[in-house]
């Protein structure tokens, strides 16, 4: 297969801002000069340790060690090949790729064909919404308050009633039946292959970057024997437990909100109604309960490294809605953000609320929210007769385990008092029951529901085992005394700002060995790079560092460099280079002073050393004063 020319690979990377690509998946904020940070998309964490440096096109997670450039980010996140990652970014920046030996572009990979098929299907469905047959679909939307502009904004379409209308249309565009089957767009039956979606209103389901990955469809006709709602089945690109409908439209307002707020609703029309009413951070699950994977996705978008964010669940007031609230509560401690529940008057969902009472009522729904814990407690005690002693005791035993789940040592006593007031009981009795359940939970559950992201150390090896790998060196394990701080900071400055420093000064600074072996390995790799003005040179240096020190090099490239601004960073990096040179000159002077003691005073060797000592003193003074 022809390979993409290396010059094009480098050119596409240089034209791509890695912060834009990562920022579509992760909420990033400033982390010092030239650095951004957010919650790592590669492991579960509550405090951000994932850093991006747009200037050098590199990311590094100080929690799990994941690192790389924009190509590796796409490959890890979307499970695509290197070639496909380059092709995707080239299309994004409008660059025409060339292939080695003048060969043609290779066939697009399977995953790209699935994305392309879904995009083509979405366009087909949108066009069909304008057809005469789609009158029932337009009426359905109109009855729910959605005009043609709303349908276009959300990409809503119509799937014709025929057996294979979409199949024929996409086959004419070059898609094979195998590709359409893999994309979940067609199904196979006794009569052959047929359209999965027929005679339905269709909503495109997009990932956080806006790429169409599947569809949700509602039936319109009484003779449709299928379920009321039908979604795309699981495919290589569509995993319903990891998708939130509307997140591509909501993510910007979520990340910019103050506080950052996500509103979780139950259906596609509810998302539409909220957005059109001005609640533009509304999202919904796609045919599955709200779960842990959805929380991970939301937390990355929210960047919730503080407790300031809010997640508001809107549930119907019926039994099914209450069960949904309890399922969401089971995952509550995975959030850093505060969680709330909002139930509309008369149990209306946001779509019906907008129809009956207008946009203002949908916006006002947020003012009715109550904390998730309070909502769940009220639902637990609602079935008990609080007018009797037995009822109050039963309600306490039902609600105490909920309060015992509260980890915040300041918040839990407040909820104990709330529960005591609800039940009309002595707060001391409530506290004792909560403590009893807390002890039971602690004794019966040896591990937290959320596993630590810290790797578990391997067991010691016995003499017969294979030799263990060399220990991983990180910034945290470097010595903090002697020469280590100077060498560490100088390498950070060199990797991050080397292209802005005097080339001769930097080369001389990294030409003499360092005292710390791990840092010396990084220094040697930097010294070997010939052109440090070329974009991407720092990544080349990091890749050249021998193991087990390459991870440390990545950390040095990404760590926050102590400076107020870009100018201060250049000045500090320059000063660190001078200090390294002065240190080297001082070492040379010490060695020469020892050598001259061993030579006759009038020998040629002693005179040569004496002249060099004078030069060293003059050189040191110049670097100290400059």
Automatic annotation (TrEMBL):
Residues 260-345 form the Toprim domain. It catalyses: ssDNA + n NTP = ssDNA/pppN(pN)n-1 hybrid + (n-1) diphosphate. It is an enzyme of class 2 (transferase). Residues 430-469 are annotated as: Disordered. Binds 1 zinc ion per monomer. It comes from the Bacteria. GO terms for cellular component: cytoplasm; DNA-directed RNA polymerase complex; primosome complex. Residues 430-444 have a biased composition (Basic and acidic residues). The keyword Cell wall biogenesis/degradation does not apply. InterPro entries: DNA_primase_core_N_sf, DNA_primase_DnaB-bd, DNA_primase_DnaG, DNA_primase_Znf_CHC2, DnaG_bac, DNAG_N, DnaG_primase, TOPRIM_DnaG_bac. GO terms for biological process: DNA replication, synthesis of primer. A zinc finger (CHC2-type) spans 40-64. The keyword Membrane does not apply. RNA polymerase that catalyzes the synthesis of short RNA molecules used as primers for DNA polymerase during DNA replication. PANTHER family: DNA PRIMASE. Monomer. Interacts with DnaB. This is DNA primase. It comes from Microbacterium azadirachtae. The lineage of its organism: Bacteria, Bacillati, Actinomycetota, Actinomycetes, Micrococcales. The gene is dnaG.
């Amino acid at each position: 297969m022809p390979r993409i020319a290396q010059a094009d690979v480098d050119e596409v990377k240089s034209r791509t801002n890695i912060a834009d690509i990562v920022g579509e998946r992760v909420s990033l904020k400033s982390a010092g000069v030239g650095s951004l940070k957010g919650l790592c998309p590669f492991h579960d964490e509550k405090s951000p340790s994932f850093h991006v440096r747009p200037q050098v096109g590199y990311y590094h997670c100080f929690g799990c060690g994941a690192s790389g450039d924009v190509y590796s980010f796409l490959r890890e996140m979307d499970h695509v090949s290197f070639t496909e990652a380059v092709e995707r970014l080239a299309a994004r920046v409008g660059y025409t790729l060339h292939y080695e030996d003048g060969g043609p572009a290779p066939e697009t990979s399977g995953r790209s064909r699935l994305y392309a098929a879904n995009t083509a299907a979405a366009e087909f469905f949108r066009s069909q919404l304008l057809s005469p047959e789609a009158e029932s679909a337009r009426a359905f939307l109109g009855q729910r308050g959605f005009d043609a502009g709303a349908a276009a904004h959300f990409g809503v379409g119509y799937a014709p009633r025929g057996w294979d209308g979409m199949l024929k249309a996409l086959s004419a565009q070059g898609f094979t039946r195998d590709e359409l089957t893999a994309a979940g767009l067609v199904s196979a039956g006794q009569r052959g292959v047929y359209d999965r979606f027929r005679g339905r209103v269709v909503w495109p389901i997009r990932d956080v970057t806006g790429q169409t990955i599947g569809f949700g469809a509602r039936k319109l006709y009484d003779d449709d024997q299928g379920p009321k709602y039908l979604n795309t089945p699981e495919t290589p690109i569509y995993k319903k437990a990891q998708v939130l409908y509307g997140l591509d439209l909501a993510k910007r307002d979520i990340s910019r909100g103050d506080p950052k707020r996500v509103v979780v609703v139950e259906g596609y029309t509810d998302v539409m109604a909220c957005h059109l009413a001005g609640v533009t951070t509304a999202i919904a699950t796609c045919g599955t309960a709200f779960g842990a994977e959805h929380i991970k996705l939301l937390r990355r978008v929210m960047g919730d490294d503080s407790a300031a964010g809010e997640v508001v669940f809107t549930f119907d007031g019926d039994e099914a809605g209450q069960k949904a609230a309890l399922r969401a509560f089971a995952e509550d401690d995975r959030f850093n953000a505060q969680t709330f529940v909002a139930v509309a008057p008369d149990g209306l969902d946001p779509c019906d609320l907008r129809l009956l009472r207008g946009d203002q009522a949908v916006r006002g729904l947020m003012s009715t929210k109550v904390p998730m814990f309070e909502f769940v407690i009220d639902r637990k005690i609602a079935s008990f007769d609080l007018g009797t002693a037995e009822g109050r005791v039963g309600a306490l035993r039902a609600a105490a385990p909920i309060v015992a789940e509260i980890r915040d040592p300041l918040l839990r006593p407040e909820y104990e008092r709330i529960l005591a007031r609800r039940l009309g009981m002595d707060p001391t009795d409530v506290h004792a029951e909560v403590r009893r359940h807390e002890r039971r939970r602690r004794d019966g559950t040896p591990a937290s529901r959320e596993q630590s992201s810290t790797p578990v150390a391997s067991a010691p090896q016995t003499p017969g085992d294979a030799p263990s790998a060399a220990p991983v060196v990180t910034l945290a394990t470097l010595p903090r005394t002697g020469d280590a701080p100077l060498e560490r900071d100088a390498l950070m400055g060199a990797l991050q700002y080397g292209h802005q420093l005097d080339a001769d000064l930097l080369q001389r600074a990294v030409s003499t060995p360092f005292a710390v072996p791990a840092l010396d390995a990084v220094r040697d790799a930097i010294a070997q790079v010939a052109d440090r003005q070329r974009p991407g040179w720092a990544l080349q240096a990091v890749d050249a560092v021998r193991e087990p020190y390459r991870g440390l090099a990545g950390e040095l490239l990404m760590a926050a460099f102590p400076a107020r601004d870009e100018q201060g960073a250049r000045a500090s990096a320059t000063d660190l280079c001078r200090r390294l040179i002065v240190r080297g000159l001082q070492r040379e002077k010490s060695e020469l002073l020892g050598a001259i003691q061993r030579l006759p005073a009038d020998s040629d060797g002693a005179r040569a050393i004496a002249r060099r000592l004078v030069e060293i003193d003059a050189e040191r003074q110049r670097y100290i004063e400059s």
